[in-house]
Amino acid sequence: MQSHVGTARSIVRHILVYFLQRPRNVDLFIFWRALFTMWLSLIPSIITPDYTWPAPAVTTVQRVTPPVPAVPGANSRWLWGKAHGLLYHFSRCYCYLFGLYFDPHIIQLPFGLVLKWTDRTSVEEVIAMQMARAAGIPVPRVLSCGEHVTPHLTREVSILMTRLPGFSLVNSDDPLEVADEGPWLEELKTCVHAMREWEPPSQDIICSPIGTALRSSRVPDHIMGPFKDHKSFYQHLFAPASQHGFISVDDYNNTFATAKQLQQRPYKVKFTHGDLKAHNILINEDGHLAGFLDWESGGWYPEFWEYTTAMRFGRDSWWYQVTMWMGGYEYREELESDRALNLLTVDSYIAF
């Protein structure tokens, strides 16, 4: 510690001597910036926004359903909500201090922590994250869950979690060369396939990990269910179907018939991430899977949902090929039906 103090004093002394020898109209901004840079060099790394906690190595992922964690109590959520509100305001100063853009939804904090606070964050997401992490999937560790009971505030739940290392993948029009990809590709496939072997509470019910509503960006109000059976699920999906946007009645009828094929055969219920997109995957410098993020849509869905939701857009894009390689090829017919369903219902949720 003494050496750090001595070094700091020496740097300050040299900076002062340099600027005192310059003309009086010297730019003070440069002076203070130099002092600030010196100060940053003395800050422990754990305080900086770049600090991350190690990601769990993807060695073996549990193929047996992990226990469903207990839902945090109402009093606990209320107390943590107050604490998270203070962290929100603290982050404004923290981001300003480090020259970061303040994101009110993904809130940066010291000690390798992040506070997620969006209108889609929920207790169900907390449970899905905890189940996935318990199974060995590289998911941030949940530290606390806060609830915010404010009439004018749509962001009702916040999650304090660890920050994972790595960078997000970006979709492109490049062809997928499996041999050229890093080990992350096989590791991600292992995670997805392991989840799909978990035993659901029932092969009939479609719901969140705790039996409540599901959140999805592809339905009105971005929330649906829970559903006691598959019939109720499909009725909800098809309810907002509209002829709007179709050039003719025949075109609408043909599209509707294609979408209806989803109901032609029974499907098993599988545990599903629900938003399997490139930007939700973190890769480290060695090419290994470092993070599997955003579990707000996680829950029990029909087996095709994971793949068709990920492949509805960007046909033949790089990520489309990744998803197809991981198992989406088994659901090509369902994909065409799901795309038809999207054409029928997109007007019901695109504005939200």
TrEMBL record:
Domain Aminoglycoside phosphotransferase, residue spans: 117-318
Pfam family, one: APH
InterPro entries: AGP_Transferase, Aminoglycoside_PTrfase, Kinase-like_dom_sf
Record's protein name: Aminoglycoside phosphotransferase domain-containing protein
Species the sequence originates in: Aspergillus kawachii
